[in-house]
Design goal:
With 175 residues, the chain is an alpha+beta fold. It is built from three helices and eleven strands, in the order βαββββαββαββββ. Strands 1, 2, 3, 4, 5, 6, 7, 10 and 11 form a nine-stranded antiparallel β-sheet that branches.
């Protein structure tokens, strides 16, 4: 991993990636979806005409990657199938974070089960469907369509974080 301190000229320190990893994981674990300070993850994909498509998603941060789920007919699923490049952004209590990379559908039943378990631990009762390669639940956002829902992993290629609290700073990483 290569890091560049974007706030060096201001005399601010490099943000350590371990801080980003910890804060994003903590922020996305066990939150109340009805809380006024709930985290919102914003997924940006690329439409077929090259324009951006931005939408909120219920994401996980697990094993150094963002994980999200959606129905097969959603725009984000169609966009990722057409062009895997995308980004996810989230604000923790101290950092604004953007992770850029590629998202790919996860079809390994063990990984799908792991993701479903993590969502369930966080309060959304997701479970693996009969195929073993998708998930289902008693409810989901209406915009993702009916189950089954496919799981995607966004593997980071680059990331940027801006600290909103002391010791402040801004750093970019390449993986």
């Amino acid at each position: 991993m290569e890091a560049k301190n974007l706030a060096e000229v201001e005399g601010l320190p490099l943000i350590e990636w371990s801080r980003v990893d910890t804060e994003v994981a903590e922020r996305l674990d066990n939150w109340d979806p009805g809380a006024p300070d709930r985290p919102t993850c914003w997924l940006t994909t690329i439409n077929a005409d090259g324009s951006p498509h931005v939408t909120s998603v219920g994401a996980l941060w697990h094993a150094g990657s963002f994980w999200f789920q959606t129905g097969e007919r959603t725009r984000k699923a169609r966009n990722v199938a057409w062009n895997a490049r995308c980004s996810m952004s989230v604000a923790t209590r101290g950092l604004d974070v953007v992770v850029e990379g590629e998202a790919h559908r996860v079809t390994d039943p063990r990984l799908v089960s792991e993701a479903a378990s993590l969502w369930a631990q966080g309060g959304w009762p997701a479970r693996v469907d009969e195929s073993g390669t998708a998930i289902t639940a008693d409810f989901n956002a209406p915009s993702v369509g009916p189950p089954p829902w496919f799981v995607y992993q966004l593997t980071p290629r680059a990331a940027t974080a801006v600290s909103a609290v002391e010791p402040y700073g801004s750093t970019r990483w390449w993986f």
